[in-house]
Backbone:
């Protein structure tokens, strides 16, 4: 899977979100982020897959397995007041059968299987 493909899918998804309107026809999302958040994540092979633990060496930072870090989407949208739940898309990995939320992952963080193309498009 190429970064260009992932970037194009992210841009397409962003454009779709920006077209969404609420009940009175006003835009549902702001076009400019209200707040940009940068999270520091340090690789640590002792942390399980798809898990994050507070990093005692980095205040406010986290530790994660290197595969988890690679599998993470780098740009995550937070929609509405319910945050991540608005964009939740739970699927079972076809390889390991673990449930994953597609808004966070480029590939399965447990077994490193690629996401099927028909699932990753929306």
Residues:
């Amino acid at each position: 899977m190429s970064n260009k493909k992932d970037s194009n899918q992210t841009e397409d998804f962003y454009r779709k979100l920006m077209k969404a309107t609420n009940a009175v026809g006003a835009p549902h999302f702001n076009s400019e982020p209200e707040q940009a958040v940068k999270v520091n994540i340090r690789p640590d092979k002792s942390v399980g897959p798809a898990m994050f633990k507070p990093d005692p060496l980095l205040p406010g930072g986290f530790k994660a397995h290197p595969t988890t870090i690679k599998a993470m989407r780098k740009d995550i949208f937070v929609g509405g007041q319910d945050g991540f739940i608005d964009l939740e898309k739970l699927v079972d990995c076809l390889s390991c059968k673990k449930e994953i939320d597609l808004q966070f992952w480029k590939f399965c963080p447990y077994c490193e299987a690629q996401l099927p193309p028909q699932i990753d498009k929306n």
Q: What stands out?
A: Residues 3-88 form one domain. The first helix runs from residue 3 to 19. The chain is about 20% helix and 10% strand.
